[in-house]
Design brief:
With about 450 residues, this protein is α/β, with parallel strands linked by helices. The chain has a domain of about 160 residues: D-Amino Acid Oxidase, Chain A, domain 2, CATH 3.30.9. It is about 30% helix and about 20% strand. The strands form three sheets. Strands 1, 2, 8, 9, 10, 11, 17 and 18 form an eight-stranded mixed sheet that branches. The relative contact order is 0.18. Bound molecules: flavin-adenine dinucleotide (FAD). The site of flavin-adenine dinucleotide has 46 residues, from helix 2, strand 12, strand 16 and helix 10.
């Protein structure tokens, strides 16, 4: 049993009552593995659309233990590396419906929060993508043109006084503003989604690791004390899927890390000039991401994303070198925070695919076993709506959602170790070198 309270600021900040593990054999219509946004969304939307389904969620630790309780809390429409990449790789005809669905996911998260009265400090303030110098700003201009091609007319480029009116960063000259991003407290959202599915009649079992499953017309799901027999199985295990020995050849678990300050005092807060409290990323390849919390702490994450040999997903939640680098970068962006204390440091695994897009599909050829995963570090919006796609894969397989570019898609193939480690690090080193050469 792993303690979860220090896995992120969010998971430890509010008290939480765990559910009991599964202790007896169970027969259900749908068994969901994983109590993150994907699993809870599957339970939520399938139960909403098919109230007669008997549904159980099995979570290895507690709800939100994985990325869903540790993330930066940006619910954003980004799919793929960036918008320019998305258009280039898939063409506008395929990119447009996919991006529009992503925007609808951000809006739907807000609707879900309101409908289920989930207190998760959601602020729909948009996103700023920062440019350090003219060359990066030209990249943003390129992205801006691509947003327009996809019909996103609310996007703006900000420079000079317009930029300074939004943020006082000592390291940046301008930004692209996209109105379609919300920031939220992810652990509160995970726990609120758990309460919402329970209200609908879904059973949620925590501290219930699934060790294996056997496909068939009835799927048999094994846990330490009991077996679940289900007509349908939905996997919401994202980076942790490696432990089930599933889909291992097309994604890698990689870690991203975050530091968080104590609540800023008035002087520190006003030195930021962050008037509209947007979520922020920069235009690097290995991005920084930053935001304010409800109690005015600064969350500052990213910078690097290690892969640990052999697909490790546990025991790597801290990286002192990256924490120190993040603190240096934070103080370079905001010299007014030179004296501020860092109160929390944490990390967690995300699942990256080679083509940088997620994948929703059937497991092997089993039409009663579905999954959604590989969100590439940008899964809050999509995983929170994942249940709609998983529903259609099971019950409406020709729907428009199943034709989106991240359903039944090829996402690249990765070799086994040691070549996997070499390939991932070669790609990452080239990104790091690009940032080193262009981010000065
Ligand atoms: C530090 C960090 C920052 C991030 N920041 C952002 C951000 O700001 N915006 C954004 O869009 N995305 C962000 N992401 C990514 C985002 O959090 C994920 O894409 C999203 O939460 C994925 O949700 P999920 O439910 O698919 O997976 P997870 O939340 O990882 O949930 C998987 C769950 O399955 C459980 N599980 C695994 N194996 C088993 C098993 N065998 N039996 C039972 N249960 C099992 C795990 O315990 C876990 O609770 C971030 C991720 C991290 C780690």
């Amino acid at each position: 049993m792993t303690e979860y309270q220090d896995k992120s600021f969010w998971l430890g900040a509010t008290p939480y009552a765990e559910n009991a593990p599964l202790a007896e054999d169970l027969e259900v219509d749908l068994c969901v593995v994983g109590g993150g946004f994907t699993g809870l969304s599957a339970a939520y939307y399938l139960k909403k659309k098919k109230p007669d389904l008997k549904i159980a969620v099995l979570e290895n630790e507690v709800v939100g233990y994985g990325a869903s309780g540790r993330n930066g809390g940006f619910s954003m429409p980004l799919l793929g590396w960036n918008i320019t990449y998305l258009n280039w790789a898939y063409g506008e005809e395929r990119a447009k419906p996919a991006h529009q669905f992503m925007v609808s996911c951000v809006k739907r998260t807000k609707e879900l929060v309101e409908a289920e009265k989930i207190d998760c400090d959601l602020e729909y303030n948009g996103l700023l993508v920062l440019a350090r110098h003219e060359r990066q700003f030209r990249g943003l201009e390129h992205d801006y043109d691509n947003y327009l091609k996809l019909g996103m007319t609310g996007v703006k480029l900000l420079k000079g006084d317009d930029f300074k009116a939004r943020l006082h960063s000592a390291a940046h000259i301008g930004a692209l503003y996209d109105p379609e991003t919300a920031i939220l407290n992810p652990a509160k959202l995970s726990r609120g989604m758990k309460t919402a599915v329970e209200r609908l009649g879904v059973k949620v079992f925590e501290r219930t690791p699934v060790s294996s499953f056997e496909p068939g017309p009835t799927v048999t799901v094994k846990t330490p004390k009991a077996t679940v027999r289900a007509k349908y199985l939905a996997l919401g295990t994202n980076a942790f899927t490696v432990r089930l020995n599933v889909n291992k050849n097309w994604y890698v678990p990689m870690f991203t890390y975050i530091i968080m300050t104590e609540p800023l005092n008035e002087k520190q807060y006003s030195s930021l000039g962050w008037t509209k409290r947007e979520g922020i990323e920069d235009h690097r390849q290995l991005v920084h991401y930053l935001r304010l919390t409800a109690d005015n702490r600064l969350l500052f994450g990213g910078r690097d994303a290690p892969y640990y040999y052999g697909n490790q997903v546990e025991g790597k939640d801290r990286h002192e070198g990256i924490f120190a680098g993040l603190e240096r970068d934070m103080k370079e962006f905001f010299p007014g925070l030179a004296e501020v204390k860092i109160s929390h440091r944490w990390g967690g695994p995300v699942a990256l695919t080679l083509l940088m897009v997620p994948k929703f599909d059937y497991y092997s050829d089993h039409k009663n076993i579905v999954y959604g995963m590989g969100y590439c570090g940008h899964g809050v919006a999509l995983s929170t709506s994942a249940g709609l796609i998983l529903h259609d894969l099971l019950f409406d397989p020709e729907s428009d959602l199943t034709k989106l570019l991240f359903v039944h898609n090829f996402v690249g193939a990765l070799p086994p170790e040691p070549f996997r480690w070499m390939a991932v690090n070669a790609i990452k080193d080239s990104l790091r070198l690009y940032d080193y050469l262009t981010d000065a």
